[in-house]
Each structure stands twice: as structure tokens, then as C-alpha cells.
Amino acid sequence: MLNMRVRPAVGRVVDPIAATLLRAGVHPDAVTVFGTVGATVGALAFFPRGMFFTGTAIVFFSVLTDLLDGAMARKLGVTSPFGAWLDSTCDRIADAAIFSGLVLWFLGEGDSTVLGAVALFCLVAGSIVSYAKARAEGLGLTCNVGLAERAERLIVVLLGTLLIGLGVQAALPVALWLLAVATAITVVQRLVEVRRQAALAAS
């Protein structure tokens, strides 16, 4: 739900950058792939080594391309099925890299099997949240409900990694536990919503 509130304001910053890249001949799909590679490298190269501030900075700026590529596509006036598929697929790759990096940290130098399991749960549950929406839309239903959509999940986890990178040790564990609960609630919310719509369609 945060997407609908934040995107208009962010668009005023992103649109001029999108226009500049288009004039330079950059394709939106290239920006999508570049952002995914950046997020993956930032998360997997730095999080497992406990370099959270550096990793968060790289991931944050890479994730912003999720707004940039969309703005570029709109300015071009072309939104292809492949572009939409690529964007969604790359989102899942970036999310997997972020939480995998945290799992590797907690099962290694972070020395916490419990938090490693929580990070893994956040990864799996987040994938289910995204799949639930995609599958519902494939069936002609809508599924735009939930406490923790992708934007919210990214904000919470990156805030946790940023703060632990600045020395606030409790920040990341708290963020992961909150995220685990919020994501589980979102899965249930989407299940209930799709069941409600399916029942209405059958009546």
C-alpha cells in the first residue's frame, strides 16, 4: 500500500533522470537488469561479511531502479509483457539475494541459527506474498491487500541493516522479527481476500 502513496512524490525526482537516460539511448530493460545485479552483489558480497552499511547503500540505490525503469517505460509509451515479466522476476532475484545474504551472515559470523531461520522465513513468506498476487491476477482476480507488500518489506529490512551497520546491534533482529510477523499476516490477508472474491464469482 505504501507504493500508491510514495510513488507520485518519488516520480517527481525520478522522471527527469528517466528522461536523461532515454536521451542517452538506455533501454528500460537494461536498467532493470543493472539494478538487480547491483542489489545481488551488494547483498551477497557484503552482508555475509557483516559489512552492512556498505551493502545497504549499494542495495538501496540499486533497488531505486525499480522506480526508474518503470518511469522510462512510461515515457517511451511502451509496456511489453516481457518487460513486466523481467521486472517481476528481477524483483524476486533481488529479494532472494538480500535475505540469503542475511541467512549466510547469521549462520556464519553472526552466530545465530534462530535469526538465520527467521531471515529464511522472511524470504519464503515474501515469495508466497508475491506469488499469491500473481496467481490471483492470473485467475482474473485482484489481490492488492496486505500489511507488508514488497516496498514495506524492503524498507523494514534495509532499515535494519542500515542501523546495525551504524552500530545499533538490536536493529536487525527486531526488523526481522517484525517483518516475519507482518509477512505472515499478509499471506493470510491475501488468502482471505482471494477466497472472498472466488466465492463471489461462484455465486
Summarize the structure in words:
The protein is mostly helical. The protein has a single domain, classed as Up-down Bundle (Four Helix Bundle (Hemerythrin (Met), subunit A)). About 80% of the residues lie in helices and about 0% in strands. The protein contains eight helices and no strands. The radius of gyration is 18 Å and the shape is flat.
Give a quick summary of the entry:
With 203 residues, the protein is an all-alpha fold. It has 8 helices and no strands.
Layout of secondary structure:
Elements: H1 2-23, H2 28-46, H3 52-63, H4 65-76, H5 81-107, H6 113-138, H7 150-165, H8 171-202
Entry keywords:
single chain, 203 residues, mainly alpha, Four Helix Bundle (Hemerythrin (Met), subunit A), 82% helix, flat
Estimate the mean pLDDT confidence. 90
Span between N and C termini? 29 Å
Q: How many E strands?
A: 0
Return Rg in Å: 18 Å
Task: Sum up the overall morphology in one term.
Answer: flat
CATH class: Mainly Alpha
The helix content is: over 70%
